[in-house]
Design brief:
The protein is an alpha/beta fold. It has eight helices and seven strands, in the order E-H-E-H-E-H-E-H-E-H-E-H-H-E-H. A seven-stranded parallel β-sheet has the order 4-3-2-1-5-6-7, with helices on both faces. Helix 5 links the parallel strand 5 and strand 6. Helix 1 runs parallel beside helix 2. It catalyses: 9-ribosyl-trans-zeatin 5'-phosphate + H2O = trans-zeatin + D-ribose 5-phosphate; N(6)-(dimethylallyl)adenosine 5'-phosphate + H2O = N(6)-dimethylallyladenine + D-ribose 5-phosphate.
């Protein structure tokens, strides 16, 4: 895995453990030689993640729509800042630049982004693995709700089993790598 797209909050949240997690993930990815692709923000968990990766000498690619840059929300001190025209384009660029996707603590935007790339994988539009870093059990209630969808017949058990979930970064990276090794590539090369 050369690059990992990370979706997470542009705010700090209430629990300082989330900021510590973002800092740990950014630094650890850099030390492992895994490039970071993220939403390009300078605030909240996004900013902490990018700062930590940059301080550890990592590659950091931020992707942000022009309108958000005009509001001065971008962290410009990154390896590369990709400016796009819309949120839709932002997600497409992030998906193109990454080999896998992970959700850290966040809200609606984080959920929307991770669910979109997960549904793309399920539809065969790409073969890149998707996961949730469930540190401190943050995503446990959501994973429980997803099991309810499977029980109700709205989410295939195989789709849910394909989702990588781990309480720590090493375990999650291992699960993502395992899915990369076994995943057939779509015919269109996405």
């Amino acid at each position: 895995m050369r690059r990992l797209a990370v979706f997470l909050a542009s705010s700090d949240g209430h629990d300082p453990a989330h900021a510590e997690l973002a800092a740990h993930v950014g630094g650890d990815l850099a030390r492992r030689g895994i490039g970071l692709v993220y939403g390009g923000g300078s605030t909240g968990l996004m900013g902490i993640l990018a700062d930590s990766a940059m301080k550890a000498g990592g590659e950091v690619i931020g992707v942000m729509p022009r309108g958000m840059i005009e509001r001065e929300w971008a962290r410009e001190e990154v390896t590369e800042l990709v400016i796009c025209d819309s949120m839709h384009e932002r997600k497409a660029v992030m998906a193109d630049r990454a080999d896998a996707f992970v959700a850290l603590p966040g809200g609606l935007g984080t959920l929307e982004e991770i669910f979109e790339v997960w549904s793309w994988r399920q539809l065969g539009l790409h073969a890149k693995p998707v996961g949730f870093l469930d540190a401190g059990g943050f995503w446990t209630p959501l994973i429980g709700a997803l099991h309810s969808l499977t029980d109700a017949g709205f989410l295939a058990a195989s789709t849910l089993e394909d989702l990588a979930v781990a309480p720590d970064l090493p375990g999650l990276l291992e699960a993502l790598e395992e899915r990369l090794r076994r995943a057939p590539r779509p015919a269109h090369g996405a």
